[in-house]
Amino acid sequence: MKIKSIILSVLMTSLSSLAFSQNTDPLANARYIEVTGVAEMEVVPDEIYVTIIVRERANNKRKFSIEEQEKNLKNALQSIGIDLKNLSLANANADFVKVRWKKEDVITQKDYLLKVGDATTLSKVFSELDKLEIKDAYIQRVNHSRMEQLKKEVKIKAIKNAKEKVDYLLGAIGEKAGKPLVINENDNSPMYMEAMNYRSKNVSMDIDGNAAPEPEVELEFRKIKLQSNVYFKCSID
Fold it and tell me: 83 or 9: which carries more pLDDT confidence?
C-alpha cells in the first residue's frame, strides 16, 4: 500500500510539473501566422575569369617557345587595354607541365588566369588569342564584384516580402500582426550563375553570290540570378 502511495505521489508531481511548464510557455496559447518570403535578383557578371593555356609549339619547322608566346600574349592584351595585373599564373608554383605533342616530342605549357569585366572585352581577347594561334582558352567562371552585398540585399527583400504577406493576409480577416516569433533563413536557397551565350550573325553574301568574310562572334552573358527564401512566424494581436 505504501509503494502505491509513493508511485501515485510521483505521478501527480510529474503531471503538475508538466502542466506548469505548458502554462509558462509564452507560445503555448499564442495565435500566430507562418509565411515564407521569397525574393530574386538578377545581375550582369562583371568578373569573367578565362583560363589560357600557352604551349610550346612548332609551325613550318619554326619552334615557338613558351617565353616568346608569353611576351606576345602580354603585348596583345595591353594593346586592347587590359591591365596585366589581371593576368596571373593559374598555379602558385608556376611550374612547367610536361605534355605530349605530336610524335614523341616533350613540350611544356603554362596555364594563365585572366580576369575581364565584360563580354565585349572577352570577345577582343579571343580575337587576339586567335591571331596568336593560342587555341586552348575557356571560361572558368563568372562572378560579380559586389556579390556579398547583393546577397544581403536579396535576403532583406525576402524578409520584407514575408512581412507584406503577413500584413495583407491578416488584413483580409481584420487582424493585425504582432511581434516576430521566428525568422529563419533558408541556407539552401540557390544562386544561379547562368552559362554564357554565344551569338553570331548570319554569313552575308556579296553580289556575286560568294560568302563574305565570316563576322566576329558576339558574346553576351546571361544575368546571375540570386534567390532567397525566409521563413517568418509572428503573433497575431
Answer: 83
- Confidence grade of residue 49 (pLDDT, cut at 50, 70, 90): very high
The closest of 24, 93, 94, 100 to 56, measured between CA atoms, is 100
CA 161 to chain centroid, in Å, comes to 23
Candidates 3.40.50.2300, 3.40.430.10, 3.30.70.120, 1.20.120.450; correct CATH number of 47-143?
A: 3.30.70.120
Fold classification of 29-43+147-236 (topology level): Translation Initiation Factor IF3 (3.30.110)
Q: Whole-angstrom Cα distance, residue 111 to residue 95?
A: 9
Distance CA 39, CA 31 (A): 27
Average pLDDT in the 54-64 region? Answer: 80
Q: Which helix (H) or strand (E) holds 168?
A: helix 147-171
Amino acid at 28: A
pTM of the model: 0.66
Cell of 10: 510521483
